[in-house]
Design goal:
heterodimer; A: mainly beta; four-stranded antiparallel β-sheet; 11 strands; B: mainly beta; six-stranded mixed β-sheet; 12 strands; about 50% strand
Chain lengths: ~110, ~110
């Protein structure tokens, strides 16, 4: 157990729908990162939050949004889902928003859009 | 912007044989580098990291990696592979003050045969 908790582990939904993925960072970590893993693109950085504020944004679609709450858990919202959004979504955390020590990853949420 | 190339998509080695996984990075200044391992159905686990000092870095599970600035490489090695090492391996790069999210390579899948 890495200490980063992601729910749900699996999600199957239809095109056009909206889903919410949840992440609780490791205890004491202030920063959360979201990555999308697909077979053709590999691990792509989506967005980072630090202590409730957006810190960095990557290749995140406008249909996707995220936030980090006062208790530091984070949610990634995916809307108007398309078949191509099917992927493994990882959350990672770090203590201070810097990458020197590396990130701690959760076990991911596998999203299947049908 | 930083980038990572893992030239080998899939490698097969015999149990007990030595292993080297290649990683080439692109970054204008001194990078900090990581190797992660992902077992099926699991998240990414940090194997080792480099950001300064000795260019030969020791990690968990008997792995080591060597940073070679002249070759922009950070290859992962293990002298004797075990069947349990079969997994996907990812190299990642970061830089600067550590605020830039890590960029990952597309991964190398390792198969181990008897």
């Amino acid at each position: 157990d890495s200490g980063v908790t992601q729910t749900p582990k699996h999600l199957i939904t239809a095109t056009g729908q909206r889903v919410t993925l949840r992440c609780s960072p490791r205890s004491g970590d202030l920063s959360v990162y979201w990555y999308q893993q697909s077979l053709d693109q590999g691990l792509q950085f989506l967005i980072q939050y630090y202590n409730g504020e957006e810190r960095a944004k990557g290749n995140i679609l406008e249909r996707f949004s995220a936030q980090q709450f006062p208790d530091l858990h984070s949610e990634l919202n995916l809307s108007s889902l398309e078949l191509g959004d099917s992927a493994l979504y990882f959350c990672a955390s770090s203590p201070d928003g810097r990458a020197f020590g590396g990130y701690t990853f959760g076990s991911g949420t596998r999203l299947t859009v049908v | 912007a930083q980038s990572v190339t893992q030239p080998d998509i899939h490698i097969t080695v015999s149990e007990g044989a030595s292993l080297e996984l290649r990683c080439n990075y692109s970054y204008g200044a001194t990078p900090y580098l990581f190797w992660y391992v992902q077992s099926p159905g699991q998240g990414l686990q940090l194997l080792l990291k480099y950001f300064s000092g000795d260019t030969l870095v020791q990690g968990i599970k008997g792995f080591e990696a060597e940073f070679k600035r002249s070759q922009s490489s950070f290859n992962l090695r293990k002298p004797s592979v075990h069947w349990s090492d079969a997994a996907e391996y990812f190299c990642a790069v970061g830089g600067g003050s550590g605020n830039t999210p890590l960029v990952f390579g597309k991964g190398t899948r390792l198969s181990v045969i008897a």
